[in-house]
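Teaching assistant's notes for section 4

Start the section by putting this record on the projector. Ask students to predict, before seeing the second block, whether Cohesin subunit SA will look compact or extended. Collect guesses on the board.
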Amino acid sequence: MEDPEGKGKKKRGRPGKQPPTSNKKPRKSPTDKGVALARGRGKANGVAQHNGEGGDPVTLFEVVKLGKSAMQSVVDDWIESYKQDRDIALLDLINFFIQCSGCKGTVRIEMFRNMQNAEIIRKMTEEFDEDSGDYPLTMPGPLWKKFRYNFCEFICVLIRQCQYSIIYDEYMMDTVISLLTGLSDSQVRAFRHTSTLAAMKLMTALVNVALNLSIHQDNTQRQYETERNKMAGKRANEKLELLLQKRKELQENQDEIENMMNSIFKGIFVHRYRDAIAEIRAICIEEIGVWMKMYSDAFLNDSYLKYVGWTLHDRQGEVRLKCLKALQNLYTNRELFPKLELFTNRFKDRIVSMTLDKEYDVAVEAIRLVTLILQGSEDALSNEDCENVYHLVYSAHRPVAVAAGEFLHRKLFSRHDPQAEEALAKRRGRSSPNGNLIRMLVLFFLESELHEHAAYLVDSLWESSQELLKDWECMTELLLEEPVQGEEVLSDRQESALIELTVCTIRQAAEAHPPVGRGTGKRVLTAKERKTQIDDKNKLTEHFIMALPMLLSKYQADSEKVANLLQIPQYFDLDVYSAGRMEKHLDALLKQIRLVVEKHIETDVLEACSKTYSILCSEEYTIMNRVDIARSQLIDEMTDRFAHSVEELLQEAEEADDDDIYNVLSTLKRLTAFHNAHDLTRWDLFGNCYRLLKAGIEQGSMPEQIAVQALQCSHYSILWQLVKITEGAPSKVLHSPRRQCNTFYVFKNWVTTILFIYLFTAFMLLCDLLMIFSHQLVSGGREGLQPLVFNPDSTLQNELLNFVLDHVFIDQDDESQKGDEEDEANKIEALHKRRNLLAAFSKLIIYDIVDMPAAADIFKHYMKYYNDYGDIIKETLSKTRQTDKILCAKTLILSLQQLFNELLQDQGPNLDRTSSHVSGIKELARRFALTFGLDQIKTREAVATLHKDGIEFAFKYQNPRGPEFPPINLAFLEVLSEFSSKLLRQDKKTVHSYLEKFMSESMSERREDVWLPLISYRNSLLTGGDEDRMSVTSGSSSKTGSVRSKKGRPPLHKKRIEGEPAEESSVEGSWMMRNDTLQTPGALQTPQLTSTVLRENRPAEHMPDPDSEHITHTPIRHTEKGFSMQMSWLGQQKMEEVNRKDRTGINYIKSRSNQEQLFRGLMEDDAEPIFEDVMMSSRGQLEDMNEEFEDTMVIDLPPSRNRRERAELRPDFFDSAAMIEDESVSK
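Reveal the predicted structure now:
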């Protein structure tokens, strides 16, 4: 690198080839260099060399890594070594950079003196450890995190200590910069990363030196000007000459430093700021930001800012983040704004767009940067730019929302002239100057038409605008008092918005945590935050105890405003009523609530009143008695009115007019709302509700709204009765809830005739009652509640299922035909209701209240309605599998069978296997197969049972045209083959044997297209099915668990040695010894298979060891005939196969010599079933090599036709088994 200024400085070349200067000390002899050289070569092959006495580290790398010594003393020692022999010292420094990169190689003195940098780097690359991708800068742990800090500090201290002499000797810096430039261009990431970090820190230190030189130059120039301007008699010419000489020397040093910085910037930064590694790019951007802030006169210009602007478009979030933070440091200083004006105009749009960055951390910093730009210049951002940030206050990610709230506060809600505004407020008779700001907040909330979440807006502004949001006196003044001269009247919409915002600020102050949907949960408050919360709660309580009755009185006719205002008492500190002697305000509040109850029948208003009464009636407060009396009086009046209106309605029957119906409905709505939160059983509301419903069933003329409210009130009455019983009420009321519950079920038949919106309520109530009065009611030592348990019969279960099928799984077009054109909001609301229906029914299945086979009708809609209900169905499938794996598998195959039967009814027996309907069933089967997970041992029996049921279904009906034609359901085997990859290899053989029982001899020879499903399914079972090892082992990830070594394979007929571990045998034993107690209800009922092949020579003492890892105790079912052993289907198939092998083995052994001895030995070993590896041929070994592919292949063509293409098949990487095997092979 040559001097760009062309001042005749020496060319930066290889160290060691510079002519020695006159003041340089004579070189040491080789023996004298031994001691110094030991330090430079103190690490050989990556292992630190220590001295023999104290064991202290002797290399720079070890010293810096441990960080036990002060960095300045380490640098001073190196400088002293450099003064003695700069070659040895530089060699030490070069090895320091090499070792910091994780390289095990060491640069020797001969290499340093005789080889170019490129040759040295090439040599070090060859010695680099390629076994691991880690190197010191990327290694985890506190030690290496500290090393990074020490590494950067060492470079900074080195330049600081050398800034007055050594860095100008044209040797040390030339050598270091040349080395780092070469390393930064290496293809080895460790070299490139480490050298770039070192070079950038070196550049930062040089920028600091240049800044100091600039300051010294300015000081020297001022001294020179001052001295020169003196009178001739007082001027000191010698001082002028010294100042001129000093200025010249400083200028030369400045030029030299600039040359070094140019070399680093052009040789390293310009190439590495766009490196392929994001961390290297981030280092460059972070440091250039430091340079521009530290030495703005030299670096804060468009020539350097453009690199930051370009990198704002980087693909990696961490690099974009460094750009934004670097710019924040610049925009914080308002004096730098003129230099940033052109950059702001050029890249402002990009910065504003980054507020929507997919990385939340980047979005937060972008919003903060936009806020700094706004603070520096109001005109820098357009209205459109500001609006892009405004709506982020409604973001669900709280840091983004809070940053946007800070921007909104700076733009709209900060007072520019507080004193003038306070004076204006006093002239208008207002106690607070925040009136205009609160009006502006209301207008902003109303103009945010896409977002109606006041709680989110308040939370976003809480940290920046607490003073404004806690000004409840000003908010109350705006609501209660008439506007003064110069103020606009709040519209009805603005008043509603202000009340909603007020309630949200009260909640935020009282609860001191974000609203639902923001944050992961309630965090523990600090002592200061807790004190602030208590103070705020006392402040709002004292204010609204007096203001709330007045607000309710003014707005009692407006249901929306009243419903919001009635939420305020739940945030009160109710002790203030008694402590402050404010009972009169309590009476005023109770009076207003009573008036609200009498005026309104809206559900939300009545529920708010009921909740308020419930809070005020808490037993922990002394005001409870006063509130309880008021509540009881109100309930008495409503109950009397309800009984009277019911009598009139029942007497007039069909002649009842609208007034009679309204009187019953309005009173019943109020009582239902109160019954939800209060125990009203002593008023016996259930009796009149029963009379209404009974009349409706008999006469069929009861209005639907009354029926729904009566059902809801009856529901609450039943639940309160249950609460009394569980709390230890007298046993004489035990029969009451059961009687009411049974009465409730009678209403169901009538309720099913009303409209969907009301039927939805009845269905939800029925599901809730079935959950409450299920078999779980007696759990936890509550056996006395057994008479209350209600188990729905099959009729009721079918009615529930049919209701779900009729009202949940419907097309949107079908629903829109029932009424007028629905807008998007109504469609979303309808979907929400349908999801609630499905979730309610799914809970009944999960908790074993409705039989699991009913879920088949739900599971079969998984693909078709995936977007609407996929999450609910998937969760239901997961929970039912946890309950009973086998029954869940039977339910899955039943759902596929139902879809297949529907397809047969539509298309007839000649199915088009390429149609989209068949593909849809296969895709659903594939999705079901993926839900079985990776652990095939846990799902072994369930998958085998699934195949058994599928095979039986495929061969259930013979073709009426004759046996030469395929069975009607044979095409179902193509669907069943999707589950073959989930079978263990030894189970594939068993399933294949079971399949052959249904096949005639002619079937196995057929090759027509109609027989392809059978061929495909057989091939999927034969793929790896003749080997008795497992492709996936439970809880094991070792190589030997997935790929069996040849040495570990036993001989064909090798007798197992006693005590030798036998994984296969133990696993097989677990299957044989398990009890299949499954009883399939409904359509899943299958004949019970009981093995009749019991081995007579198997005494009890030869049963498998119960302590074996895979063997479980045999559960025994007691029947009328005694005890009988029952096995799983797979176990029975294995038992039959074993006995067949045993009989063959015995006949074979009898033909040999020494028959008695061999036979005795065989019988001893035969006491436990042996499953031997029968695939030891060359074919088996070939399949053993390719096992990771075979387990996932589904071959749809006959073996004779696809043998050539088999090698071209690839595993299905959506299959978890394929991924596991691929990982095991890659290891």
